[in-house]
Amino acid sequence: MNRDALQKLADEDLMVLVERKDPQAFEVLYDRHGGAAYSLAHRIVGSPEAAEDVTQEAFLSIWRSGARFDATRGSVRSWTLGVVRNRSIDALRRQAGKAPKLDFDDDATLEAQPASQLTDSEAIRRETASQVRGALRNLPREQSEVIGLAYFGGFTHSEIAQMLSMPLGTVKGRMRLGLEKIRLALAEGMGIADSSGALP
Amino acid sequence: MAHEAYRDEVAAYALGALESSERFEVERHLDGCKKCREYLLWLDPALGLLPMSVDQLRPPRQLKRSVMGEVHAELKATRKTERERKRASRGLWGSIWRPVTAAAVSLVLIAGVVGGYALRGDDEPPVVAMQAFIEANSTESGVGPALAATLEHDGAEGTLHVEKMPALAKDKVYQAWIQRDGRMEPSTVFVVNSDGRNEVAIEGSLEGATGVYITREPEPGSKHPTFPVIMRAPLN
Prior knowledge:
The structure holds two protein chains of two kinds.
Chain A: H1 3-8, H2 11-19, H3 23-45, H4 48-64, H5 76-94, H6 120-137, H7 141-151, H8 157-164, H9 168-189
Helix pairs in contact in A: 2-3, 3-4, 3-5, 4-5, 7-9, 8-9
Chain B: H1 3-14, H2 20-32, H3 34-49, H4 61-90, H5 94-97, E1 107-108, E2 127-129, E3 131-132, E4 134-135, E5 148-154, E6 157-164, E7 172-180, E8 183-190, E9 198-201, E10 211-218, E11 229-234
Antiparallel strand pairs in B: 1-4, 2-5, 3-11, 5-6, 6-9, 7-8, 7-10, 10-11
Helix pairs in contact in B: 1-3
């Protein structure tokens, strides 16, 4: 299949080809999600070099075991970024004495390209990031805090409960409520193409 | 546990905030619970949004070159190894690599993958295809010649990539073992997803290990193997 045809495929169809070790399909997958993956890795590990290593490891892990993707558990994008996130947390833990950044409100000082130099997709990603941060700021602080500690910090709910001196059940409940609020906000205001806005 | 209570677990699972044993439990629950799988899928867009909240950067160009360079190098190595394996299996030398049925044990090889060959070049952490053994009279569902797993290791750390393994009865689990100095040390306990797949970190160092083995064990795992080996990866 040529590259143009591959680019029209949905992620799930691309993954079928990746599982069959199609390098062109894999390259399209990288092009779609590599930017978000690198940005996430950078956010967690804190340096461009470490982010590059982690992103490479994550994508090669996906290439080698693409068969692990399970469509009943979530989208290809979430799964791919989940692999990157997990590798980033592992890398962070291996760095002696390095604590994860816990600020959920991301204002890291990073090299930023001027808007005029961005490609269309980069500009869209930037705009989306700004909108998403705005939406997340609307979450109650206690919910965004536990979500940030879990997702970006790699802490388990037990560790979070200890850190924040609160019961385990409270931590998990806040995680659930926070994620549900984000999900419902998406259905209401961010134009996600999904008819099932209501909780299943 | 009622579904409403499971939602807290599923949300924590989605965020990667569970301990490994808890994750294992939730995955088993998800395998059998359509409502919870629907809930997890419903949460998915929210999960997808979290990474988008960080500053979006342009990855360095050499990152893609490195990734795709590795991909093409591995494909080339795999094709070469496959050609060599086919050549070897055609001659007398191939019989050394084909595991034989031993009358003294209950193991019969139904499907064999030539064990232990590295899928990558010398400079990279090796990926070892695991060799499969299947009991002749196994009653587990889905047992057939299609077991497939690879072990990726980097000196001390290893990761099992399980691609095709049958689901087990509720009271059984798969268990990995590290062979070292003639002893089998218990390692990770795991189950597979509904499609026979999983990725698990090998608990324990692989330094000095001579092999990694997989058996089926009663839940929650055993201190010593109680069932025959079903897969193994020799390590040098």
